[in-house]
Amino acid sequence: MCNMTLEELSGDQTTESMDTVGKALEEVISSALPQGCITVGVYEAAKSLNVDPDNVVLCLLATDEEDSQDVALQIHFTLIQAFCCENDINILRVNNMRCLAELVGGVKQGGEPMDLHCVLVTNPHGSTWKDPALSKVNGFCKESRCLDQWVPVINLPER
């Protein structure tokens, strides 16, 4: 149930709120990386979602302007979004892939760039993740759904 006033429902989320969520998302990624709680890549994410969807706490779908014309990528996104909605996994679209690459270290061993179009954040093995930054991001996702924005877009702050 969404407990929002008419004013809150009629207005879009403020830039200040978006900046706060962007910073919280940075914190989530930064704390998930050393714990091994990040899955990077559309194919790898699909495998992880298929094997253990209950362990996924957040799905990030990232694009740049040139990706908007990639029909195959858009089909992958549609399927991943549907799966995440069906399994109550929060989803965010991220517009700044360069910043995302800086956060997750966007290069594989051997120098090959990572597929950053889909990034999953999972619970640490055998426990539930209690993180104030993750709570803030999840709260933003919930508020967005109340506004019929099922996949809100976040711009990561420039580093």
UniProtKB/TrEMBL annotation:
Tell me the InterPro entries matching this sequence.
Answer: GADD45, Ribosomal_eL30-like_sf, Ribosomal_eL8/eL30/eS12/Gad45
Keyword flag rRNA processing: no
Compartments, as annotated in UniProt = Nucleus
Q: What is the source species?
A: Acipenser ruthenus (Sterlet sturgeon)
Query: Carries keyword Zinc?
Result: no
Name the UniProt record assigns to this protein = Growth arrest and DNA damage-inducible protein GADD45 alpha
**Which one Pfam family would you cite for this protein?**
Ribosomal_L7Ae
Location of the Ribosomal protein eL8/eL30/eS12/Gadd45 domain: 24-105
Q: Which domain of life is it from?
A: Eukaryota
Gene Ontology biological-process annotations = DNA damage response; regulation of cell cycle
GO cellular component: a single term: nucleus
